[in-house]
Amino acid sequence: MNSFFSQLKRVLAGNLEKKVQPKKQLPPARFKPKPKPKPQSIASEGKAEAVLDRAQKEAAEIKAVAESAAAMIRREAEALRESAVVQEAEMGRKRGALEERERILEQQKSVIEKKQAEIEQLRKGQVAKLEKIASLTREQAKEMILGQVEKSLAEEIAQKVQESEQEIKSQAEEKAKDILTEAMQRGVTDCVVEYTVSTLKLTDEEMKGRIIGREGRNIRAFERATGVEIELDESNDIYLSSFDPIRREVARRSLEKLIKDRRIRPSRIEEVVQKTREEVDQILTDQGRRLCRETGVFRLHPDLVNILGRYKFRFSYGQNMAVHTLEVVKIGVAIAIEVKANVNIVRLACLLHDIGKVVTEEEGTHVDLGVDLAKKYRLPEAVVACIAEHHEDKSFSSAESRIVWVADAISGARPGARYEPHGEYVKRMTEIETAATSYPEVQAAFAYQAGREVRILIKPEAVSDSQLSLLARKIKEKLEKEVAYVGQIKVTCIRETRVTETTRAK
What we know:
- The longest helix is centred in the N-terminal third of the chain and has 93 residues.
- This protein has a 3-stranded antiparallel sheet, covered by helices on one side. The chain has a 3-stranded mixed sheet with strand order 6-7-8. It has a two-stranded antiparallel ribbon with strand order 4-5.
- About 5% of the residues have low confidence.
- It folds into 4 domains: 108 residues; 81 residues, 2-Layer Sandwich (Ribosomal Protein S8, Chain: A, domain 1); 127 residues, Hypothetical protein af1432; 73 residues, Alpha-Beta Plaits (2-Layer Sandwich).
- The chain has 16 helices and 8 strands.
- The termini are far apart.
- The protein is mainly alpha-helical.
């Protein structure tokens, strides 16, 4: 094929080389004479015949080259056709082999599934026979076997547990002590536990009559203006009752001014209450700014600063919210610095973690209210997550959330931080002792240190020394699941064997 094209090129190139020289053109004449016919000579006829012969020879050469190329192309096409037929036959053979293999595999699969069904049926029958012979259900037999295995491996398991605990403690205890000790040292604040009972002492009975007014109009006007209920008893004490600490504070300050002024009438009450409310609003703003300044949080929204000021008059379990928040911020920041966490996120989250407790305009848990408030003012998502997770209502999503939870627990669990009613205290201590004595191996349990420690006396004949560690772990896990407590509970199991002999009298 290539040779044909090369010959064709050579022939065409030879024809192009034989160019006829163009005739010289004469300048146009002014008057063109009429051309006369030229006579054909013998020389011109011979020349024409030579050109014709040469053209026929060239055409014959081109035809021969073309026929040769066509024959070559036909041979190549025939070879390709034969190759395609062979390949198609080979593909058909392979396709048939694959179909046969798939058919065999399907047959084998059906056989295997049938065998599996038969084996499962036999297994169920054997299990039923065994249960009937042993008079035990499958679950009972499983528990019996696991119990025997646990007893046989109790010493090894206890040894592994002790080794793991010692290894973990040796690596983490010292570092944790340093971090927490330093954090609590930095978080120490001047704190006087304050219990708010909005009570006013009157000097005489006449002032009580002035407060009540004719037919009780003064006391009704005061309650209507402040939103606080007034309770009077036989003594000269006045009790102000309201779920909102801000209202109660406004009422207390207003009543003090009215008692001092001694001009008590409905119009005067409304005037004094309005002025006092403005004063308290300014106090809240100043307190919020002060708290932000002490915690190192700046450029906070003014409305959030005003809400933070309510911490001054809010108490949780007898613990002042402003003091508690300041402690949490200091402890959390110290821990964040030590563990290389985001200090700014921890600082802001510690400041706002309990802000839902002072939101009285809406209903819901303080966690949900705090999350809604943080989203309303477009705080960072990391801060919102810390507020949502600081009571473990959700799983921790970051190290900063854990730090906020730890700092809050440290501030709330320290001795004297919170007030607890006697009934709740007794109930918690009883729950701890009941959970510990629920095991038959326990002889007695004694909770002390406000429920932060429990001593458990073990029956020595029921538990060996190797099984004692496992029993202590089981009691610890049960306390974590069933008892509500703050901080930690230290579980101490005591197994003591005594032998007594008495001599005979001489």
